[in-house]
Design brief:
The structure holds two protein chains of two kinds. By secondary structure, chain A is mostly helical. Chain A has helices at about 1-30, 45-50, 50-85, 90-95, 105-115, 120-125, 140-165, 165-175, 180-190, 195-210, 210-215, 225-235, 240-260. Chain A has one domain (about 50-260): MetI-like fold (Orthogonal Bundle). Chain A is globular. Chain B contains 13 helices and nine strands. In chain B, helix 5 (about 175-185) packs across helix 13 (about 340-355), helix 6 (about 195-210) packs parallel to helix 13 and helix 7 packs parallel to helix 8 (about 240-245). Chain B starts with a helix and ends with a helix. The chains are: A mainly alpha, B alpha/beta. The interface of A and B includes residues 38 and 232 of A.
């Protein structure tokens, strides 16, 4: 009996944490979304959301987040795979993670310099005979920088999954005559799928609401829901509309989480 | 676990020790009560020598803190816990601060130097009879350009030039709804405080046609980008223009002939003030013509102090880009508080404009 009370007591800090920092904010966001700019209870915000501007913006956010996630995955999986095969894998892993300690804004400013008309990237292109071109304020640079920022978060879970993989399974596959490709497709990939899924979650969800990069790197040529939320809260001070956009963002995120955490039977 | 506990304890002890040291130091230098004045201003927006002069003359120690946006400044004052005696918001923020009861009324008897301020800049719609604010610097919104990067033979005199197809992918816009919608309204000959939806939709239509010429819509980065020759033209504040021209003398600035925005940064005394007499003394000191002239030379924005102009170098005073003549000044308008709903509409249109792709 006493044991049980103790357990409940230990739960208290976590429960409080969840209530104050997770549940209460979400409820507040939902609550605020029902008030129009004059503080009257109404559904105008929801009506406004279903107009061409915001639907297009949702689609944009979704598309860019999707691109960023897929490209990160395509780069991160082979990287993680090679890492597990190297001699000093912890050291290599550390080197990949170290850049993520640097402030995001600082990295964005560095990229403004690198991608500028007279920046390092263009000087290289000229030297290579391709000729300089506009890099900054394009879709390309936006996706590139976002992928650069998110890649460590994609590599980590995949690396952990690959590292935990029991090598005897691979020997078995080899013994039973599976080619390297078949081994990868039928053994390695399915067994590391959980790592891939959590990597995708960690990248897709923040990518959906990126907003500083859209201005600094994409020069507001890419407008995402994050930009709109920032504008509604800071400039217009229409908290209701900002909250409404956030509600839809939360819905998309929950949907994505649900989609990526379905476990296939038998796996 | 033991190591973790120990390091946690060490951090705690060090933090407490630092707090005590700061407290002691402050007390030792007399940083408490009546002989300090906390000034909350934009970054790099005052001549440090002027502050020193003020400290020597009055014996008051000035603590100088900076902010980088009106919104951030206002939030910090609203939240309390600060002791700012002076703040320097822009005009539209003053209206909001008055509405939210964040400002003390000024005692104009304590600011005799007010007489030196040009009447044109007094008693403006955002603060009638200057009950809460005294203008510090003023400026315009206009076009900053790099003549070396412009197409051959092109001259820029007004907003309409921005739509010139030769400027394809060459324009940086500032990321502000009032500024850009205002620019569109001025181009069409409307007031930049216009709230007629028909006019505003017409403006949006016109602005969307500008899209092929726009390279990016950015914030403060425009200074860095212009200095690095990233674009030929930028729409921005005259203050930014002064900074850019300081870095690269080839740059030029024009106040558009169609008219534009006239903005002010103003001294106010927020409700967080502890040293109200000192704050009045500071404002009065800053309005002294000689001090104001020295400060203006350092900051290089336009001063509203007409006596100060006499102490400034002639080429600065006669620079029409920063002290436009009467004919042009008449076309400049101050932003009026349009009310929340109209502001939301402006922002909605601006968002639509940003979403528009070539």
């Amino acid at each position: 009996m006493q044991n049980k009370t103790f357990r409940h007591l230990f739960m208290l800090p976590y429960a409080l944490w969840i209530i104050i920092f997770v549940i209460a904010p979400i409820l507040l966001v939902v609550y605020f979304s029902f008030f129009d700019i004059n503080g009257n209870f109404s559904l105008t915000n929801y009506k406004n959301f279903f107009t061409a501007t915001y639907l297009q913006m949702t689609l944009n956010s979704f598309w860019y987040a999707f691109l960023i996630t897929v490209i990160s995955l395509l780069i991160a999986y082979p990287t993680a795979y090679i890492l597990t095969r190297t001699k000093h894998k912890q050291l290599w892993l550390l080197l990949i993670i170290v850049p993520s300690w640097i402030n995001l804004l600082l990295k964005a400013y560095a990229f403004i310099g690198i991608f500028g008309t007279h920046g390092a990237a263009n000087r290289f292109l000229e030297w290579a005979g391709i000729g300089s071109r506009q890099l900054l304020f394009t879709d390309f640079s936006f996706v590139f920088v976002a992928v650069y920022i998110f890649i460590p978060f994609m590599i980590l879970p995949i690396f952990n999954a690959l590292d935990k993989l029991n090598p005897s399974l691979l020997y078995a596959a080899n013994d039973l005559g599976a080619s390297k490709w078949t081994t990868f497709r039928r053994v390695i990939f399915p067994l590391t799928l959980d790592g891939v899924k959590s990597g995708c979650q960690v990248v897709f969800i923040p990518a959906l609401s990126l907003f500083m990069l859209t201005r600094l790197i994409a020069g507001n040529r890419v407008i995402t829901l994050g930009t709109a939320i920032e504008q509604q809260f800071l400039v217009t001070q229409n908290w209701g509309m900002g909250a409404t956009i956030a509600v839809f963002l939360i819905i998309i995120m929950v949907g994505f989480m649900a989609l990526t955490s379905i476990r296939r039977r038998g796996v | 676990m033991k190591a973790l506990n120990r390091s946690f304890l060490i951090i705690l002890v060090v933090s407490v020790a630092l707090l005590i040291v700061i407290n002691r130091l402050n007390a030792a230098q007399g940083f408490s009560g009546d002989n300090t004045l906390t000034v909350y201003n934009w970054g790099d927006y005052i001549d440090p020598d002027v502050i020193q002069q003020f400290e020597e003359e009055t014996g008051i120690t000035v603590i100088y803190e900076t902010f980088d946006s009106n919104e951030a400044m206002m939030t910090k004052i609203e939240q309390g816990g600060t002791t700012y005696d002076i703040a320097v918001p822009s005009e539209y923020t003053i209206e909001k601060m008055v509405e939210e009861d964040l400002l003390f009324e000024l005692d104009q008897d304590k600011i005799p130097n007010l007489q030196y301020i040009d009447e044109r800049f007094l008693n403006l719609p955002f603060d009638e009879n200057n009950r809460y604010s005294i203008p510090y610097f003023w400026g315009t919104v206009g076009i900053i350009f790099n003549p070396e990067l412009l197409p051959e033979g092109m001259e820029i005199t007004g907003w309409h030039d921005l739509w010139d197809p030769r400027l394809e992918n060459q324009i940086l816009l500032v990321d502000g709804a009032r500024e850009i919608i205002g620019m569109g309204l001025n181009t069409l000959g409307y007031s930049l405080n216009d709230t007629n939806p028909e006019h505003l939709y017409e403006t949006l239509d016109r602005l969307e046609k500008l899209t092929p010429n726009i390279r990016a819509i950015v914030g403060d980065e425009n200074k860095m980008l212009m200095v690095n020759n990233e674009a030929a033209v930028a729409v921005g504040w005259s203050g930014d223009a002064a900074d850019i021209m300081w870095e690269n003398e080839a740059m030029d600035y024009v106040v558009p002939e169609e008219g534009s925005n006239l903005w002010f940064d103003n001294f106010v005394i927020p409700k967080t003030a502890k040293n109200i007499d000192g704050a009045h003394e500071f404002i009065n000191f800053m309005l002294d013509p000689e001090v104001s002239a020295q400060n203006t030379e350092y900051v290089s924005y336009s001063t509203p102090n007409k006596e100060a102009l006499k102490y400034m170098p002639e080429e600065m005073v006669n620079d029409e880009r920063f002290y436009p003549d009467a004919a042009l000044t008449d076309k400049l308008e101050v932003y009026e508080n349009l009310g929340k709903e109209n502001l939301a509409f402006y922002n909605e249109l601006f968002l639509q404009f940003k979403m528009y792709r070539k």
